[in-house]
Amino acid sequence: MTQDELKALVAQAAADYVKEVVPAGAVLGVGTGSTANLFIDAVAAFKERFSGAVSSSEASTRRLQQHGFQVLDLNEVDEIPVYVDGADEIDASGAMIKGGGGALTREKIVASVAKRFVCIADGSKLVDVMGAFPLPVEVIPMARAAVARQLAAFGGQPRLRMTKEGGIFKTDNGNVILDVAGLKISNPKSMEEAINHMPGVVTVGLFALRGADVLLLGTPEGVKRSDY
Ligand code: 5RP
Predict the structure, then answer these.
(1) Which residues line ligand 1 (CB under 6 A)?
(2) 44 alpha-carbon distance from chain centroid
(3) Residues at the annotated binding site?
(4) Could you give all domains of the chain from N- to C-terminal order, each with its CATH number?
(5) pLDDT surpassing 90 at residue 119
(6) Atom of ligand 1 nearest to the CA of 104
(7) DSSP 70
(8) 9, 60, 62, 178: which has the fewest C-beta neighbours closer than 10 Å?
(9) How does pLDDT run across 21-58, given as a tens digit for each residue?
(10) Nearest by Cα to 39 from 52, 30, 28
């Protein structure tokens, strides 16, 4: 099976899961990325079940609205029973690297409100030690160089994210992203805390302090579920 087929498999499994566990009339939390897009397409088949969705990016908002979902402002929402999102890497404890699509800050905010974080990923994303995927860090533009020096002192090699056209990539929040290569993340919680404390850092793409509660992993043998 191709990676895209595995993504489609877990996206459908997540839609089935949500149908089973999310009470009718509840608000759905929706992530960002190619796997999350497939989830949006799958869950749209029973969108009437939800009072609306809270989205983690402008791109997911557009896709949700194209399917006729009502997209709600998080400030108007008290409870999100389930948040479904992809990951760039996930380890055996449910800690993740996220932000490959640049939506890490809004993803972390929506995830923090959700009761349950359901991670959907193809099998290649499950790793023993995270760090092969460069760790995204969203930074206030004026702090870019100062934060990059601190991340280098941490043992990483930060690189400013660029667009395909060669411009500086800007997040939905108007900030920049440093992608940090060369890290071996054996203690994700303490690294998340340390990077969070660097002045100018908006969000680090480590989701360890609040990791996944459920992983739906797409493998050639089918979808494997882990609960953390
Ligand atoms: C976006 C993310 C995505 O969830 C992550 O990059 C995985 O993306 P994909 O499903 O396309 O592999 O964190 O900011």
Answers:
(1) 31-36, 85-88, 98-104, 107
(2) 20
(3) 32-35, 85-88, 98-101, 125
(4) 3-127+209-227 (3.40.50.1360), 135-203 (3.30.70.260)
(5) yes
(6) 14
(7) P
(8) 62
(9) 999 999 999 999 999 999 999 999 999 999 999 999 99
(10) 30
